[in-house]
Amino acid sequence: MSSRVRDAGQNTGVAPEFTVDPAMLDAISPSGDRGGIVLGSGLKGEPLTISALRSTPTRIVLVGGLYLARQVAMRAMAVGAWVVVATGRPAAWQVLSQAAGSRDGRPSPLVQIRRLSPVELPRPSEDAPLLVVTDGGPTPQDLFPPRSPWQTTVYVLPYLHPQAGATANAADLVLMQRLPAGQAELAARLWRLPPQMMRQLTTLKDDQVVALGRNLWRPLRLVTTGKEQQLLGPVRRGD
């Protein structure tokens, strides 16, 4: 993997993606954009996308609060993905069902909120990619490892735990919010980060995220739309 974050106008992406202005992103209604998910903006305000829905099985680790995890799931819905959430706190994820709306008076089939146990997943395809969210605490079970093209599994880690090292190291992309000093030191050991990067992890603002991958270290600022604010509230680091 080279870069999982792409600037507008560059051709370094590894999946079919279309960069759109974050201000124009409709977080509720699916759009025609596929592959790239607008996550935020760079230091100069340029929109940045992540290649989250790809033709190869993909793992993403989120280290941070529930806000970031739910926003990523909503962005996947916005580009037409199925979303399955396996969680021990289903009430916290019902906002996705609200975002998806209903069809003929029934909840949208595009979103499934399930308990932390193996279930049969929808079959992903290029026209209907699948995002599986595993919200199982700091040491998640690998209930739904990505085995098919167009399946992406997101592991939500509320904090970085030593026993999550294998999951973190296997990720194609890691998104990290601000970490306390001890967890930043653990991150530095896991990914062999130099001291300046380790320190940067401890000073991120509530709306800042670092995207980490092979040959990738990219700070970015989360961009939240009006519709997302209605459902999720203001950008925040915690839950």
Give a nutshell description of this structure.
The chain has helices spanning 66-78, 94-100, 165-169, 181-191, 195-202, 226-232, and strands spanning 5-7, 36-41, 47-51, 58-63, 82-87, 102-103, 106-107, 111-114, 130-135, 151-157, 173-176, 208-213, 216-222.
Account of the protein in words:
This protein is α/β, with parallel strands linked by helices. The chain has six helices and 13 strands. The protein has helices spanning 66-78, 94-100, 165-169, 181-191, 195-202, 226-232, and strands at residues 5-7, 36-41, 47-51, 58-63, 82-87, 102-103, 106-107, 111-114, 130-135, 151-157, 173-176, 208-213, 216-222. Strands 1-3-2-13-12-11-4-10-9-5-8 form an eleven-stranded mixed beta sheet, with helices on both faces. Helix 1 runs parallel beside helix 2 (94-100) and helix 4 (181-191) runs antiparallel to helix 5 (195-202). The longest helix has 13 residues, at 66-78.
Count of helical regions: 6
User: Taking strands numbered 1, 2, ... along the chain, how are they ordered across the largest sheet?
Assistant: 1-3-2-13-12-11-4-10-9-5-8
DSSP, total strands: 13
Encode the helix/strand succession as letters: EEEEHEHEEEEEHEHHEEH
Main sheet: strands, sense, barrel: 11 strands, mixed
| Cα-based radius of gyration, to the nearest Å | 16 Å
- Measured distance between first and last alpha carbons: 31 Å
**Beta-strand percentage range:** 25-35%
Shape: globular
List unreliable stretches of 5+ residues. Answer: 7-34
Helix content: 10-25%
Structural class: alpha/beta
Mean pLDDT: 83
